[in-house]
Amino acid sequence: MFKGQTALVTGSTSGIGLGIASALAAKGANVILNGFGEAAAIETQRARLASDHGVTVRHDGADLSQQAPIEAMMARALAEFGTVDILVNNAGIQHVAPIDEFPVDKWNTILALNLSASFHTIRLALPGMKAKKRGRIINIASAHALVASPFKSAYVAAKHGIAGLTKTVALEVATMGITMNAICPGYVWTPLVEKQIPDTAKARGLTEQQVINDVLLHAQPTKQFVQISEVAALAAFLASDEAASITGAIIPIDGGWTAQ
Fold first, then answer.
1. Which residues contact 249 (CB under 8 A, 6 or more apart)?
2. 191: pLDDT strictly greater than 80
3. 65-116 pLDDT tens trace
4. Within 13 Å and on the Cβ side, how many CA atoms surround 81?
5. Which of 52, 53, 139, 258 has the greatest CB tally within 10 Å of its CB?
6. How far is CA 165 from the centre of its chain?
7. Which positions are annotated as active-site residues?
C-alpha cells in the first residue's frame, strides 16, 4: 500500500508511536523512528522492522522540545528520502499538578513537545508534499483535545492547540492532495499513561488502583483501555488513498468518552 513512501513517526521507540510505525512498515513504507531509549533496544527494534517488512528503517534521536534538532532531523530525512510522504506527530509528555503548583519549566516543555514540535515538522514536510501533490499528516492528539480533566492544564492546552492546528492546516492544503487529521485516543495502556498514575494518585488522594478504576477507565464507557493496535490501524487508514476525502477531522477513538 505504501511502497516507495517514507513515514516519519515521532515518539516511536515505544507505545502508540511504535505501533503506528510498525503498521506503516508492514504496509511497505520506509520508516524513520524518533524517540529516546536504550540504544541497543532501539537498534533491535529498527533492525527487526526492516527485516520483517523489507523496508528501510532509520532512527533519529532528535530532541523535539527544541527547534534546532527538529530542523536537523527533517533535513536528514529529506536528504535521504527526498520527501516525508506520511508525517505522524505522536511525541508527547505529561505532568499532573494543580495549576498553582504547576512547575513553569514543565509547562514550557509540554507546550514545546506536544504542540510546537508539530508546527515545526509540518512546516518542514509540506514543501515536499506540495511538490508531489500528495501527503498525509496525522497528529496524535488525545480525548483531551476535546474535553478537559483536572490537574492537566499544560497537556489539555497543548492538545486543544493541536486540534486547532490540524483544522487550520487542513484548510490551507485542501486543494493540494494533502490531508491533515488528528486522532484522539482515550486512555491507552502506554508508558505515558502508566507513569502519570502515581502523580494523579497523589494529586487526588487516591490509591493507584483507584486511579485506574475510578479516574482513567471511569471516563470510558467501555471500561477498557484502547489498544495500541486500534490506534495504529486508524492511522494507517488515514494515510491511505481511501482516506483522501477525510481532512480536518478530529477523530475520537476513546471507548465513548467524548460522547458523554
1. 181, 182
2. no
3. 999 999 999 999 999 999 999 999 999 999 989 999 999 999 999 999 999 9
4. 27
5. 139
6. 14
7. 155
